[in-house]
Known about the structure:
The protein is mostly helical. It has helices spanning about 1-70, 75-105, 105-110, 125-155, 165-190, 195-200, 220-240, 245-260, 275-280, 290-295, 305-310, 320-325. The protein contains 12 helices and no strands.
Amino acid sequence: MKGKAGSMLHEKQKQEGHIWGSMRRTAFILGSGLLLLVAFWNSVTWHLQRFWGASGYFWQAQWERLLSTFEGKEWILYIIGATQVPSLLFWSFNGLLLVVDTTGKPNFISRYRIQVGKNEPVDPVKLRQSIRTVLFNQHFITCPVLVFLYPILRLWGDPCRRELPTFHWFLLELAFFTLTEEVMFYYSHRLLHHPTFYKKIHKKHHEWTAPIGVISLYAHPIEHVASNMLPAMVGPIIMGSHLSSITVWHSLALITTTISHCGYHLPFLPSPEFHDYHHLKFNQCYGVLGVLDHLHGTDTVFKQTKAYERHILLLGFTPLSESIPDPPKKTE
């Protein structure tokens, strides 16, 4: 009996030793990883700051020249920076994608299509209708709303002030903008899926169950303001941001949402699998980053799919639909 008790005690001590050993190894790995991350981050920011500082005089001089050109008419400069520059980048990127969407060429890009067999090629009538809506939203909704917000931005800090933001301040702003957008977009988007609003407002955007890049702004005017514009503008308003920060942020936001809707999981670009799945299934994956979807459990079905396994940054040239294919469909 004593031998058995001793054996059990020895086994328990052995298990505890394994647990503590595992915990120490985990702490060591996490601690080492954290130190490496901090060192890497400091190195990256140091090099970027040196570049920022070295080119800072150049950009400051260009900015002051612009201010002199638009002296007394800074609101025009604000409209150009907040709307026209991001729109130019939006249409440049989407122009390239539309070539593939309408012609299927070059063929190697078509290999990265997420929903195989959809939009091959895209319906021209549906596309023309969508482009008209996008142009309407950009010129008759976005521009007037941003003109309206200009005096509000000036209350917190003139967006066209003379001094450009520092590199670290811009990084802080970017982090705040991203978090603000995640929170506001998730809840406004989820609200639009309520039956009261879905049929009259949000259903328009979901006409595309297999999205393409340009339809990222294809939405009812109310949705465009509440779910597209406000999540992107509240951050700059709170931070009293400089026009340069607003221009970069709006450009990044438009390029990112284009990638999320483009329908292709392209190498070295952020994965669009998350939002593509939302268009396919409607009731999953409401956010941008996926943080609030995880907290609210609105990505549980998505996590059980092959699309979730493919929701990674593609660092090679083999399409993930080939390396992680969907399971074969069951035959009746």
